[in-house]
Structure formats: C-alpha cells, structure tokens
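Working notes for the structural subgroup meeting. M.R. asked for a predicted model of this chain before we commit to crystallization trials. I am recording the input and output together here so anyone reviewing the notebook later can reproduce the run.

Input as submitted:
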Amino acid sequence: MSFLKGIAASNGISIAKAYHLVEPNLSFEKKTIENPTKEIERFQNALNRSTTDLESIRDHAKENLGEDKAAIFDAHLLVLNDPELTNPIEDMIKTEKVNAEHALKEIAERFVSMFEAMENEYMKERAADIRDVTKRILAHLLNVQLPNPSMISEEVVIVAEDLTPSDTAQLNRKYVKGFTTDIGGRTSHSAIMARSLEIPAVVGTRTATKEIENGDLVIVDGLKGEVHINPTQEAVEQYKKEYEAYEIQKAEWAKLVNEKTVTADGYRVELAANIGTPKDLKGVLDNGGEAVGLYRTEFLYMGRDHLPTEEEQFESYKAVLEGIKEKPVVVRTLDIGGDKELPYLQLPKEMNPFLGFRAIRLCLEEQDIFRTQLRALLRASVFGNLKIMFPMIATIDEFREAKRLLKEEKEKLTNEGVKVADNIEVGIMVEIPSTAIIADAFAKEVDFFSIGTNDLIQYTMAADRMNERVSYLYQPYSPSILRLVKMVIDAAHKEGKWAGMCGEMAGDETAIPILLGLGLDEFSMSATSILKARSQILQLEKTEMEKLARRVLEMSTTEEVIQAVNEAVNGDKKTS
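Returned structure, recorded in token form:
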C-alpha cells in the first residue's frame, strides 16, 4: 500500500478501481512493410473498430446529452468512412510500402492543412474533425486505448493530470465515485464542479498519474485530502466504517432542509448556492438553498463550437428563475479568461491571462457578445427575482459603462414591446483588492456586493490558486483578507446595501464564524455545503462571533486566527 497527500477538494470517501484519464502515447516510427495487402487489412480493421467506438459514443451522447451534442459524432462517422480520406491512405501503403500509421499521418496532415487554409469557417472546423477521427484510428493501429469518461460503465476513481470543467461536467455520478489529480487547488473549477456533483475529490497530489496504475484499487479521502493506493483489507474496512459514519452525519444535516438559517440568538442570514447550469437547481432545492448566489453563465458558452444564441441563453436563464420559485437569483455575466477559454473566440495568448483580457474587460470590448447576454437576461427577468452581477470590476468607470449598456438594451426591449422587470438589482463581484479598498465609493452606485474570494485571495496574496506549490499562500483566514472583507461589508451597510460572498470561503467551517461576526448577509457556496453550514450557524451566537471578528482583525497570522476560531467555537485551546 502507498499513500499520496493532496488538497481536500470535495468532501466524501470513495473506494474503487483507478481509471486513467490521460492522453496516451501515440508516437510511432515510419517502417517499410513487406506485405501491403496485410497492412491494408490492418488499417481496415482499425477503421471498423473506430466505427464501432463512434457509434457507441454517439448513441450514449444522444441518450444522455441530447441530439445536438450527438451530432458531432455523426460528422465524425462521415469522415471516418469517406473514400476521399481512406483511399489515398491505402494507395500510399501500396505504392510506397509504408506502415499504416505513417500513411494515415501523412494523408491526414494534408487534409488538415487544406481545410485550415480555407476562408469558410465551416470548412475550417472540419480540420478538427479529421484530427479527432485519425487520432482514434491511430490509437487502434497502435493497440492503445483512448480515454472516454462518458463511456465508463463500472465504478471507478478518475486519475488525471487535471480535469477541465467540461470533463468534470460530463462525469456520470453512477459510475465515477471520485477523482484525484496531479495539479489544481480547492478553488480550481474541476474541484468546484466536483462539489456540485457530490463526487469526493483530492487534487494537487503532484504524482497521482505516475504513482497510480490503471486498475489499482484506490481510496479517495476527500475529507482529509488523502489518496491510498492498493490499500490493505484492514484499511478498506476502516474506510468503509468512516464512509458509513459520514453518510449518517449527512442524514442528520438533511433534516434541516426546510429550516431557516438563524443563529442561536435569533440573527437571520441567507444561505445560497453557486450553480453552473439549470440542472444544478435540483441540488440547490434538495439541500435547502434559500437563493442562487452565483449563476456562472460561462458554462453556457463552453463545450461547444460557437457562441450561444440569445434564445438559448434566455431559455436557460428563464429555467433557473422559474425553477427556484421566486427566490433570488444572482446571475454573473460572462466571466471568460484565466483558466476558462473559448477556443472559437480565438483570443490572443497572454503571458498572464488571470490578470489579462477577461470577464468584464472582454465584454466591454466585445459588445455584441455582451449585449446579447444582457438582452437574454432582461427578457428572462419577468420570470423571477433576477439580480445581475458584473465580474472583475476594477474601476467605477467599468461599472458605469456596463450599467449603461444594460440600460440601453432595456430601453430597446421596452420600445420593442418586450416586458422587462423594473426591480432588477445590479451589483458587482468584489475580487480585486483595489475595488475592496474603495468599496465605500462603489457602494454609492451598486445595489449589492458579492465578494469573490477565490480570486480576491490569489490577487491579494500574489499566489496562483491553481498552483499546488504555492497553495500554502492561499490563506482565506489571513488577517489581510479578513480586513478587506470587513471593508466591503461595512461600506455596503453604510449605504443600506447588502453584501454577500460567492467564493468557496463562504462555505468554509473555519471562516463562517468570522464572516457571521463581520456581518455578512448572504453566504453562497456549493449546494452540497449548505446543510452543513446551516447546522453550524444554528449553533453560533451572532454577538459572540462579533467579539471573535474584532479579535481576529487585530491578529498577525493565519495560525492565530484559526486558533482563535477553535477556542471561540469549540473551546479548543490548541491550534489545529
């Protein structure tokens, strides 16, 4: 048995066989062959196996993702069986007596170059189809298995270098019992998605893909941030008991699903959920969410080859507003950039994309994209309690410009006879230190603040939240962060506005007592964290937490803050 330590990214315990989700080695050498006929048969066999793969994937996608998502595999099947592609490959094998791998690569590259040189966008996209299809054929020629998470049909633990948000969103909870990655942190998007899906996860292990073999028995302990490889039977039995204890605890929390979130001394706060798609609403309602505090609209734009239309966006926003049944819904406008890319936008590569052309900066320049989203949101506003939030706001001028565009689109719709709600609150995400510092000025113009601690912490501490090597600097309890949070809350309250938090810190059991003491009005977190947070808040007294907050603001280190929380909440005199 061996053991890896990582970052606990999603609570829970899973025990299953490892499934490597890594790009295989598809390298080969050019060879001269003796029998072209036999080589062509080998190529035909690879084609047939690839056809079987794609038909199966298409049928699975149609059943689980819908006709539109499955259509891409129909296109791939057409490429796979196109004589314009396959005949030249067979001809090269015959005439030049080369191995099928080499002929496939040579002919495929010719077609890719030809399509990429075309001006027609549709034809350019066919180059990507050829790449995907020929990679599958090549894998079969080399007898190498390509990973495909959507086709997993047994209980597994995913092992990968990293998982993209779209990878994670496609994981089937019935079979994927947990995952572990080499890189990433608690606030990486794969970790956030894992919490939404209630899949235990440990990230940032550095060596999981090297240490874990395909098929190894793996325990993922998302509570402690540990991964056990080929554990002893004794360890398995112990973890089964811990799993059962955790399930019992979850059942106790579930009893609070219809309770209000009120402290022991009668102070009411709102527990909201962060979501990525309308499908996430079930989790919000099942976990007693009192609002949607962050609807990440970028997932509407990802995992596709073109921008979503106004109508597609309208239907998604409407579904969320109607589904949450008049509870507040805070929708964040498009937040693309950093680790979230849209290949079809073809944005220039940047040295430091987290500090670059992203979020509101992109939207204010690419106004057609932004205006389409604003129109869809405004049209949907009559179906519920919509609040609109602009991300990555650094200056008051940016907020004013974004609000001006919103006002213009509202006037256009009204002139067209389209109904728009009159009571839409407009706020900003506070995730840049400079914005927090002049929160008093912003508070005069916004309707609310939502503190995005995931980025606020990394920008304040100058520590990339995706980099496990500097994860020790990602300190949500640092007095510097707490002072910035206090500035924002105080500024909002002075102007009679409310302040929420939609970063992962809002659901952190060490941070919650402090945030309660600082006067945070709304805590928005992964839906699966809500009941645990409610259970904690019900036992806390607001007046005592205010005293705690005043103390920790005067401290110098994260360790001192953690100890103070433990003493105040648990009566613990030791740092844990």
